[in-house]
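Reading a protein record of the kind used here takes only a little practice. To see the layout at work, look at the sequence and tokens printed below.
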Amino acid sequence: MANKAGMPPSTVASLLSEKSRNPTEDTIFKICIGFGMRMDKFYASNLFDLKNISLENTSQKIYKV
């Protein structure tokens, strides 16, 4: 996926291991390219529904899965 997205494998590994928890819009865009999807489809995920988001402690994961 890193090759398809035009990103270094270390960036993908960092995202997957949660070392990088705040990817930039550019990184998200590249990930979408890697998966062959549009960004609006990415953001349409249930992870972004307000009922699944807790802003009480933003230093932790903010989504409930």
